[in-house]
Amino acid sequence: MLETIDLNDKTYAELLEEAIAQIPLYSGEWTNFNVSDPGVTILQNLTSFNYLQQTAINTVTDAARQKLLALLGFRPRQVRPAEVLALPLGAEPIRLTPCRKFSSNGVIFEAVTEEICHPWGLAAVYLENGGAYTDVTSLLDRSVNLSSVPVFGAPPQAGAAFVCVLAARPDLSRPLLLYAGTPETGRNPFAAGDAPFALIEWELYTADGWQPLAAVDHTHGFLVGGAVALGPAESEPAELTQTPIQGHALRCRLVSHEYDLTPRLRSLTVNLARLTQRDTRVALRALPGGQGVTLRLDPLCPCVTVYGRADDSAPYRLYQNRTAARGRYYEAESLPDGETRLVFAGEASERPGPGPADLLLICAAEESERGRALGPIYGYVDQEITIDTDGYIIPAELALLLETSSGGEKAYEIVRPGEVSPDGFLFELLPGNKICVRRPEISGTCRAYIAACAVTLGAEGNVREGNAFTAFAPEGEKADAFLNPGAGRGGLSPETTADLRGRFAACLQTPWAAVTAADYEEIVRGAPGLCIHKVKALPVPRDNLMRIAVKPRSEEMFPRLPDSYIRRLSALLSARRMLAAAFVLVQPEYLPINVQAGVQVKSRFAGAREDIEQALRQALDFVSTDAEFGAPVRFNRIFTVISRLPCVAAIVDLALTPGRRGAAVSDGLDIIPEGHCLCYPGRITLEIITRTER
Predict the structure, then answer these.
(1) CB–CB of 15/53 below 8 Å?
(2) Do both 71 and 29 map to the same domain?
(3) Reduced DSSP (H G I as helix, E B as strand, rest coil) percent helix, strand, coil of the chain, to 5
(4) Do 617 and 634 belong to one domain?
(5) Are 484 and 85 a contacting pair, CB within 8 Å?
(6) Residue 571: which domain range?
(7) 3-class SS at 594?
(8) Alpha carbon 645 to chain centroid distance?
(9) What's the distance, CA 264 to chain centroid?
């Protein structure tokens, strides 16, 4: 359906030849078939039209493919910029303003909020349990590669907590951002709405003791690395004096849990700012008008164009930066603190209104200002205009300024992708940084300009952790800097039609309904938020039953399937199984394999017994390796492992026996365990015979 189907592969010449050959069937009077004959000329035109129509029918465009895929629920993913949490460096506060630019190895990031970042962090970190404090401040030293710390104990204990002593008084009038780094465990990504493994409470120390603090936790209880947003707080912080290092403090307490793995931290960073991977080429600022406005302009975007309107029902008009007796103009005055005052000193009727968007400022660098003009809007449907810029344009950051003539004076309006303007104008952003005019509902002449535009690198913005971000600064000024303790996240590149078709094809091969044993295994293996090491589905046809053995990843040597996994997997499989089919989750059974061997070793090798035992334990370890459930123990393989050791001269005797009856059968000298069993080394009995070498 999505491929091109050639309904007629004949050329224009072949079609014309067929048409002329059929003339005698319809008219005996038409005998002149030369190109000079008017009838043949008409026939040529009709054949050309037929050929063009046939070509159009044969061509399956990207737009047609996308519409067909949309019927199946597949739409292209839009571009999305990455985000990083950044730690301010240096000793001086850093002022952030929207669109302030920072560079990390040539990749541009921007601030998203107006704030002042003070360079303070953690003074100390303590694990608290039963009133005792254990210092783990080593988490603060990113230059030392230390093993991770179990923040709630190993195994985790309800009531355990860790305390973060801050190096300064926190401003909790806005959320305080924290980043927790965790070791990699092979856990599947969590899905939205997944039930947490633990109930955790964050608290702020106040004059009244520890008080609850609102938290948005993206770490799922420190099982994966991510951000935690704390606050805002209703109470004022106070200094904690019970810890060796005193100061304002936060506490994270484990209330209850069903952890499958012990939560561990390898790094902890607080007082972070958000930076977005984008490069704003043209910025649009909407402000209240009136007699004047005070604002801070970006010195890197000196080209400022001002538009105003009397109220939200009037069009925008252009304001000039000049002094005149009449007309729309403004005067710019530089203030000592780096801000600028725009004064609209003309007649009151010509000043911008006081509404929140009655004054528009379009700010751009000189090179971007030269490319703002996109040309005329001609008034036909699907007119395409390419915006000449590198990177991917972010749809939410794009706006056009339409210039029309109204009453002999130019009028302006702002339109965004997918939004219908008051005049009925509508455009979309297409892949390749193209805009397509879907509804050109305009009268008279109209020209389009870029009013706002920002680009991103998409997935390339997901930078690794530990990068320096240096601010763009005018020559001679100090460049502020940040460091990202965690990798960039969330960046997506736009999806082409070919990518969309590939995702559709992959979805067709993904088992959404559990039918075969392989379907059950793949669904369990990809269960959101779980750490699955091994899975084996064992069909029982006579009972229409599927027995599913699952081994989770665990710090235990012989882990069992915890109740939390059984509940989550049962809910997942129940929603996908066939109505008449049944399934049961089976605990893994661990089967010891006993070895009795007589080995002749070379006399010059010391420690031969230890080498042979180690080789046997590695060869018989089907639990921690990638061996599947029910994997057989092959006698020849064990024999080969021993005989290839440098210390071994000969194998005199070798016997393998299962350590538990009923869990395995013998096939000659091999051992075949049950399908839900995993073998491991049991009792090893070695008789070492030393051969004297000459």
Answers:
(1) no
(2) no
(3) 20, 40, 45
(4) yes
(5) yes
(6) 510-586
(7) strand
(8) 48
(9) 23
List the one residue out of 360, 357, 366, 449 whose CA is nearest residue 404.
Answer: 449
Quick one: pLDDT band at residue 620, thresholds 50, 70, 90? very high
Query: What's the token pair of residue 444?
Result: 């008279």
What is the distance between the alpha carbons of residues 472 and 300, in angstroms, rounded to a whole number?
8
Q: Which residues make Cβ contacts (< 8 Å) with residue 109, sequence separation at least 6?
A: 84, 86, 101, 102, 103, 275, 276, 277, 278, 461, 469
Q: What is the pTM of this model?
A: 0.82
With a CB cutoff of 8 Å and minimum separation 6, the contacts of 343 are 291, 292, 330, 331, 332, 333
Nearest-angstrom CA–CA distance, 548 and 583: 7
Q: Is the peptide bond before 212 cis (omega within 30 degrees of 0)?
A: no
Task: Quote the DSSP letter at residue 528.
Answer: T
Residue where a domain stops, chosen among 563, 586, 609:
586
The answer on 37 and 158 residing in a single domain is no
Cα separation, 351 vs 290, whole angstroms: 6
Q: What is the DSSP string of 640-674?
A: HHHHTSTTEEEEEEEEEEESSTTSEEEETTEEEE-
Q: How many Cβ atoms sit within 10 Å of the Cβ of residue 66?
A: 17
418 exposure class (CB count in 10 Å sphere: 0-12, 13-18, 19+):
exposed
The answer to whether residue 463 sits within a structural domain is: no
Confirm whether 358 is domain-assigned. Answer: yes
In a domain, 454, yes or no: yes
> CA distances (Å), 448 to each of 299, 397, 568, in order?
26, 16, 54
Query: How far is Cα 197 from Cα 238, in angstroms, rounded to an integer?
Result: 31
Q: Is residue 466 part of a domain?
A: no
The count of domains in the chain is 6
d(Cα 482, Cα 456) in Å, to the nearest integer? 20
401 half-sphere exposure, CB direction, 13 A CA radius: 26
582 contacts: CB under 8 Å, gap ≥ 6: 543, 544, 545, 546
- Indicate whether 566 and 636 sit together in one domain: no
Mean pLDDT across the chain, nearest whole number? 89
Terminal Cα distance for the chain, rounded:
78
CA 652, distance to chain mean position in Å, is 59
Predicted confidence (pLDDT) at residue 72 exceeds the cutoff of 50:
yes
Q: Which of 250, 148, 156 lies closest to 198, judged by CA?
A: 156
The candidate with the shortest Cα–Cα distance to 401, out of 387, 391, 416, is 416
CA gap 563, 548 in Å, rounded? 15
pLDDT tens for residues 446-489? Answer: 999 999 999 999 999 999 999 999 998 877 677 899 999 999 99
**pLDDT tens-digit series, residues 218-251:** 999 999 999 999 988 888 999 999 999 999 999 9
Integer-rounded Cα Rg, in Å, for the chain is: 36
CATH code, 521:
3.30.300
At 155, list the tokens: 């195994």
Residue 193 identity (one-letter amino acid): G
